[in-house]
Write a structure and sequence with these properties.
Rossmann fold; about 210 residues; alpha/beta; 7 helices
Amino acid sequence: MDKNPGESQELQRWNSRFANAEYLFGTAPNAFLASQAARLKAGMHALSIADGEGRNGVWLASQGLQVTAFDFSPAGVAKARTLAAQRGVTGNYAASVDELAAWDWDAVQYDVVAAIFIQFASPAERAHMFAGICRALKPGGLLLLHGYRPEQLAYGTGGPRIPAQLYTAPLLRQAFAALQIVEMREHDSEIDEGDGHGGMSALIDLVARRPA
C-alpha cells in the first residue's frame, strides 16, 4: 500500500534533518529524563518512543536498563545505533524503524515508557498512542513524559506550530486517568538541546505510575 503523501513528506523532512553528521538535538539526554535517574533501576525494561537519533534511549541503556526504542526515520535510527555503539551499550539498546501508527502497544509490557517531545500526532492519533502507553506499562510501571505547553507558540524556540499538538495539564490528566499521577510540573525554562531545541521554553513534565 502506498504511503499517505503527507506522511511521506514528513518522513523525507526528518530524514533530511537527521542526515547531517551532527546530532540535531545533541547526544545528551533530555534534562527532565535525566532528572528522573533515581527512579530507575538496572535491569528494568524500557520503551523509548520516537527515539530519533537515540540520545534518550541510549542514556537509559547507559543506566543499565534494557531498552527497546523506535523511530520512523531510518536516518535517525542509524545514528541512534551508532551512538549506542560509541557508548558501549549495544547489549542494552535495540532500535528499530517503525511507524507510530503501526506500533503494537500490546506486544510487550515495560517497567518504564519514555515519551519525550513526541508532539507530532493529531489529537486522534495522540489518543490512540496515549491509550496504548497505558496498556504498555506493567503494573507499577512508570511513564516519563515531557513536552511543550501552548505558551510555547509565543517563544517559538522549538516544537510544533499546531496548537492542538501541545499539552495542557487537564489534557494529560484526562488522557492518563488510568494512571496515578506521581508528579506534574508546568514551567518555563531555558533548554539547550543541540540545534533542534534551544532557548526559553514552555514545558510540562509528567511522572505517572500504572497501579500495581
